[in-house]
Amino acid sequence: MDIESTLSAKEKLALSRAQLLGAMGYEEIVAGGDSGQDLTLRATAAPRRSMLAKIGLGALGNWWTRHPLNTVVEMTRPVLESYAYRYPGRLVAYSAGVGGLLVILKPWRLLSLATVVTLLFKGSDIAATVTSLVGSVRADTTGDVRDHLPPLG
Length: 153
Known about the structure:
Elements: H1 9-24, E1 26-30, E2 39-43, H2 51-66, H3 68-86, H4 88-105, H5 113-121, H6 126-140
Antiparallel strand pairs: 1-2
């Protein structure tokens, strides 16, 4: 006989909730006895990322902070947040409309690959990104850095 078939609906709900919270990286701590009214959540340790993933995310973050479009996004964020707070339905409808137009018109076909690469790297300080990338490798490694980096010569 299956063990889940013997559980009550509340027990099944509690089990699925615990599995969902575990998958999201949280632990469920019940501090109110059996009633479970006083529920607090605690984050568990984040899964360890590989060195390559850390370097890639660091490089991507550094590239985005130096890109000119980041300034535009940061300047429009307060306006969009207040508009989204007041009119969330309109914002979703406008976003769907713009996305639909982009799919229908396909404006990226008008650009060459060289233009797209130029737009991606325009204003980005590649030397500073590489320097911060090497700095993040040094900060993340333990022991001698020369063990983790390839030789320069």
